[in-house]
Amino acid sequence: MKQEIERILLLLKNNLDQIDSLENWKQIKAKYLSKSDFLNKLKKDLKNTENKKELGQYIQFYLENVNQILNNKRKELESKKFNSEEDNILLKKKIPEIIIKSKNKGKIHPLTKITFVINKYFDNLNFTYVYGNEIEIEKYNFDLLNIPKNHPAREMQDTFYLEDENKLLRTHTTNITARKLYTDQRNLLKYYTTGVVYRNDDNDATHSLQFNQLDFFMLSKSSSIAHFKYTLTKLLEEIFVKDIDVRFRPSYFPFTEPSFEVDIGCFHCNKNGCSVCKQSGWIEILGSGMLSYEVLKLTGKEADKIQGFAAGIGIERLAMIRFGISDIRDFYLNNLSFLKNYDKGEK
Prior knowledge:
This protein is of the alpha+beta class. The protein contains twelve helices and nine strands. The protein folds into two domains: 81 residues; 236 residues, Bira Bifunctional Protein, Domain 2 (BirA Bifunctional Protein, domain 2), CATH 3.30.930. A seven-stranded mixed sheet has the order 1-4-5-9-8-7-6, with helices on both faces. The chain starts with a helix and ends in a 6-residue tail after the last helix. It catalyses: tRNA(Phe) + L-phenylalanine + ATP = L-phenylalanyl-tRNA(Phe) + AMP + diphosphate + H(+). It comes from Candidatus Hepatoplasma crinochetorum. Its EC number is 6.1.1.20.
């Protein structure tokens, strides 16, 4: 298996000279990653094999090396683009203009803008903000959240594991929910957190290796679905600065029961159907539900006497919907044009 991977990596290296533009680079990346017959077969075999750990390590080895080779080539292409004689002359002409414009008032980044709204909303409801661990252990990222050992999310192709096999980069901010439920033994808890999470995913217009997430939960003797629906609906109205239609659909998550997928009525087309909502009139926005009996037991709570609700939301997704942003990568490029004009598409 390793020899076959090394053969493919050698073939990729030999083809690097043929990549002379970022467009060609994207095509080669797709060929060796998302459209790779070899990689897709390995992922398919992983579901059926008993030796998941060994095969997962081969997949990880393949992904790390392909990404490293391609990223180095991309840096080389970008360096050539910006270091040509013509670009240097153009830059010299623009330096005075850049210096003058730098004195202009800046603008709040869209992710920061959404996070400010979230913080204000939960602070007004007397929720306590919690700073979270980005390097986590399986106990809080998976075990206490009732995510079984054989769950796909725990495989190496979905999660970044560190050299210490028990440590990983958290895959969701729900690890904070698990930590607080386990370490704070009071029966009335109201916590929220925002922060970066990591997934072993492709970088494209709608996916990223890392993104920001909001997670919140409330625990008490009287928490109900009605309390949860009100709290979440009002949060979404604050974020989108308008009254919106909210739809709760039954779903499944290991740590909530009942679980809900939450959709909002598309305000780009008034639910008539458009490219944003894929002609459905609704936009899927988050997963949520009532904390499951099993999670409450695993975290040492009196599961027969108390109940709670929880939700996890991608902050980039909220910003993309509110401001009409189509490519998640725009948030991380430090493109001044984007930062100055991102809210032009706001509805």
